Recover the amino acids of this structure.
């Protein structure tokens, strides 16, 4: 099998964790670098979460680079109320002894695309600060990447941070604009594939999905988390990876319930990871995307021109359709099998 080289740039985060696990659990994925971007939690916490997740997964050495502490032009805003104090919900990950890369997240992007021209799929599941910094260092980056997949934005859909903007773009709108502008000259087969809220908010994880994953991992007991579970409840699953996922995602269920979205969790980042490995999961439509920077109530809103009204070439392929059940089949089978495989002693 020819494995797909991937750079994952994340702001780990609960759903970022699932995105990283999805890649680690997918034999066709070859993660060659992880860039830690400030967003859900500060960059140093993101990097620590990435290293700790590699420990939890008993993963081989993988380069994890630290990103910029602040967005390009505005102070950092984080969201521990959404992702928990450490950024992984109710779960707690012990600090890793793995070492961070000597190079910055931006330098990691630049060096790897120069080393592997035309081979790498970039996956961004956090603010685009470090990709924008990389583009400033290497303007040819769009031509040096094989493809870019971005989780971010909202088009014909309400925002999740203000009425019109989405969190990753909200944190660093200047970076998002620099990224979309940089891809304006990209050929059709190099346009970023954009997984915006329009599609990711149709990917709704529910307690049954966690139970199916635990069952696939042969973890015991099979737990069905409930709205009535107190915050201090913790999973007793025999498999450590299932325990982590249950404690992390239950926080996300509580958060979505608190904001009247139901006892569920939107799988923004793992969906983008699945698309990065298999573009056929996504039905896309080309558009010219730009980011509002000057609006008073609309700043950081992503705008899609689907009809060429701006007389500018399309710079994005926006995901307008998918099969959520097919995604969950892949997530549950891959991560469930992976959890069983990395903790064989649990089932002995
Ligand atoms: O708006 C959803 C996105 O913001 C996801 O990537 C989530 O992890 C947060 O970063
Ligand atoms: Ca994220």
């Amino acid at each position: 099998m020819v494995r797909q080289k991937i750079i994952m740039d994340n702001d780990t985060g609960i759903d970022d964790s699932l995105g990283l696990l999805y890649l680690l659990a997918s034999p066709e994925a070859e993660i060659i670098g992880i860039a830690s971007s400030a967003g859900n939690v500060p960059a140093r916490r993101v990097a620590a979460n990435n290293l700790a997740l590699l420990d939890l997964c008993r993963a081989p050495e993988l380069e994890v680079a630290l990103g910029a502490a602040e967005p390009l032009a505005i102070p950092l805003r984080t969201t521990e109320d959404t992702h928990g104090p450490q950024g992984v919900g109710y779960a707690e990950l012990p600090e890793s002894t793995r070492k961070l890369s000597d190079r910055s997240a931006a330098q990691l992007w630049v060096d790897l695309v120069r080393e592997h021209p035309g081979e790498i799929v970039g996956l961004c599941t956090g603010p685009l600060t470090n990709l924008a910094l990389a583009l400033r260092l290497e303007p040819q980056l769009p031509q040096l990447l094989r493809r870019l997949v971005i989780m971010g934005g909202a088009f014909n859909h309400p925002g999740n941070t203000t009425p019109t903007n989405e969190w990753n773009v909200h944190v660093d709108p200047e970076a998002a604009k620099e990224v979309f502008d940089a891809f304006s000259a990209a050929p059709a087969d190099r346009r970023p594939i954009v997984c915006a809220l329009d599609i990711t908010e149709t990917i709704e994880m529910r307690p049954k999905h966690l139970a199916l994953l635990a069952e696939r991992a042969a973890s015991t007991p099979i737990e069905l988390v409930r709205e009535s579970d107190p915050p201090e409840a913790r999973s007793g699953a025999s498999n450590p990876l299932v325990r982590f996922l249950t404690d992390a995602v239950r926080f996300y269920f509580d958060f979505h319930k608190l904001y009247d979205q139901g006892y569920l969790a939107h799988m923004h980042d793992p969906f983008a990871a699945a698309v990065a490995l298999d573009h056929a999961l996504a039905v896309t439509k080309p558009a010219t995307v730009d980011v509002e920077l000057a609006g008073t109530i609309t700043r950081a809103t992503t705008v899609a021109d689907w009809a060429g009204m701006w007389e500018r070439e399309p710079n994005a392929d926006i995901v307008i359709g998918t099969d959520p059940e097919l995604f969950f089949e892949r997530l549950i089978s891959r991560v469930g099998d992976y959890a069983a495989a990395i903790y064989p002693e649990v089932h002995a």
